[in-house]
Structure formats: C-alpha cells, structure tokens
Specification:
It is built from seven helices and 13 strands. By secondary structure, the protein is of the alpha+beta class. Strand 4 and strand 5 form a beta hairpin.
C-alpha cells in the first residue's frame, strides 16, 4: 500500500472564523479578499464578476494552487466567507447578480441511455484495440519497455506519462488533454471545462450526469466541441484500461475519504468520482479537525474499465498535488 500521505500546505496562524461573515452577492466586488469554506480556509481574491455567464473569477492566494484563477458559479459565494470590513456592491449591481444567479442556477439530469451506451461500448472495443496496437509499436515508450505498472506506487511512472502524451499527440488530442487534466487537478468545479466533459460522458451513456447546466456558450465550440471531447474521453478510457490490463491488473482497490463541517452531506458523486489508491491519503481526507466534525472512509475494488484518469499516466497529478489519485466513471449501483 502507498505509504506517502499528501502533505497539504496549511496556515498555522489561520485567522478565526469570527473575523469573517458568510458570503453574499454584495461581497462580489473586484479586489475583495475572501476564504473558501474548506478545512484549511483557502484564501482567495475576487478578480472579476461576470453576470453574463453566471461566474465570478478568483485568484488563489496561498497553498499549492497559489496564483491560479478559478471561475466559480455565482451561487458559490455562499461557500465563501469575507472579512467583516470588506467592500460591498451597490443594490443595482446586486440585483443584476441575483437575476443572473436565478437564470443560471438550474440543474441538468441525464440518465444513461442504453442504446447510446451500447454504441459507446462498441467504440471502446476499437479504442482498446488501437491502444494495444500502439503498445506493440516501436513508437510506444512504455509498450517497448517491461510494461510494469504498480497500482500502489506513490508517484506516476514518467515513462507511462510520456507514453500517454505521445499517444494523444498522435490522436490529435494533446491540447484537450492538457486543459482537462490541469483543470481537473486544480478545481473540477472551475468554469465549464470539466462539467462539459461530464455532460458529454453522460450523452455517450458512460455514466449519469446530475449537476449544473452549462453557462459559457463557448464550452462546446471549436477545440472544445462535443465530438472532440467524446474522442478524448474514449481515447483515455481505452488507453488506461488497456495499460492496466497489459500490466496484469483487471481490478484495482481504491479508497475515498471525506470530512464534513457540520451535518454529513451525501451529495451525488457526480459523473466523475475522485478516489485514491492510497489508504493513508484517504484516511487523512476523512480526518476530523477544528472545523470538521464528521468523517467517512470507504474502500472498493473496481474494474479498470471504470478508470478515466490516474496519477500513473497523468503528469499534472504529480506536479503540485501528490494524492495517488484515480478518477472513476460513476456507477450508481456501486458504493461510489
């Protein structure tokens, strides 16, 4: 089992919650500082407010994502806290923001269409054949090696990471891979990037989708068109499952740890489910703390056919965060 626990950066001198108040729409003023209501109260700064597409931009001011910009939905202001003396927007601006929030704060429910799923499963057979042929070719760095893959390794395999990059370049999907993987690792809820991938996955019949609607009209245009997103999803699924099977692994054990500030909130897992190969990391994610009153730790053996992305072949999962992560397709009949 992986013996490395992710050492998340924290502020030992974090200011107490009493110096802040719950976020409201009138707090969304460019330049205002705020904090995310996560366990370590990640500090942020509002950069811009965009009621036309229902987002506001924040800069992460500390920890591993320092300097990164996130696009947060307007309703997420309730997941933030602001200093008591922060600036507030005039009533006219707040009215525009409230109108935008109501316009965009709707959910989309997509069940698995069995006809679409059958067609996708047939496409995945071809994807796995393409990957197997790639591994047998001289162009594949990992396929030309020992094809070793230890699910419990703490870090990704540089050879396998380079191999996936070469494979997706050949498929004309390397640009989409970089954007998707980097975005998912930083914050899968930022903007419509990951959300649009999840909706396309549901339309393919891979897993259900229950979540916010798309807000940005460019989310499914140009380089991000639905057909390119579908090609990326299928290429990745075919590559990852074939790599694990080539290394002798038809199933893997993954873990999921969660902690809660107040009451346990059993939200749907979403189309993509973040898990870890490391029991130690999952245990740390379920730990109690000063602002965490409940925790849950779960384990499951899953087919490698559910693996969309893991730290073994994904470069960004080995840069700032080291969580031995495995991203699964959701399965409503499974534990997670």
């Amino acid at each position: 089992m992986v013996g490395v626990v992710a050492a998340y950066q924290r502020d030992p001198d974090m200011a107490p919650d009493e110096l802040f108040e719950p976020g409201r729409l009138d707090h969304l003023v460019a330049g205002n500082s705020c904090r995310l209501l996560d366990a370590r109260r990640t500090p942020l700064r509002v950069l811009a407010v965009r009621p036309d597409i229902g987002f506001f931009d924040v800069e992460v001011l500390a920890f591993e994502d320092r300097g990164v910009t996130w696009e947060l939905p307007l309703e997420w202001v309730e997941r933030l806290q602001f200093p008591l003396d922060g600036a507030t927007a005039p009533p006219s601006d707040v009215a525009r923001l409230d109108d935008a929030r109501q316009r965009f704060d709707h959910r989309l429910d997509l069940d698995v269409d069995l006809v679409a799923r059958q067609e996708t499963m047939e496409r995945l057979v071809d994807e796995r054949s393409q990957t197997a042929a790639w591994f047998d070719s001289a162009a594949s760095p990992w396929g030309s090696s020992s094809r070793h893959l230890d699910p419990d390794a703490a870090h990704g395999d540089p050879l396998l990471i380079a191999d996936l990059d070469a494979y997706l370049k050949r498929r004309g999907l390397a640009d989409l891979e970089r954007r998707f993987a980097t975005g998912y690792v930083s914050n899968p809820s930022s903007g419509d990037l990951v959300k649009a991938h999840a909706i396309v996955a549901a339309e393919l019949g891979l897993a259900p989708y229950c979540g916010p609607i798309l807000r940005d009209p460019d989310a499914l245009r140009g380089a991000f068109a639905a057909d390119r997103r579908a090609s990326h999803l299928l290429a990745r699924l075919g590559y990852v499952s074939t790599a694990f099977r080539a290394a002798g692994h038809g199933h893997v054990v993954v873990h999921r740890g969660m902690s809660f500030e107040h009451a346990v909130d059993w939200r749907p897992t979403g189309t993509f489910v973040s898990t870890t190969f490391s029991l130690d990391i999952a245990t740390s994610q379920s730990a109690l703390g000063p602002n965490r009153t409940a925790g849950v730790l779960m384990h499951q053996r899953v087919s490698v056919d559910r693996l969309l992305m893991t730290h073994h072949e994904t470069g960004p999962m080995n840069d700032r965060f080291h969580e031995a992560e495995a991203v699964l397709l959701a399965d409503p009949t499974a534990l997670f």
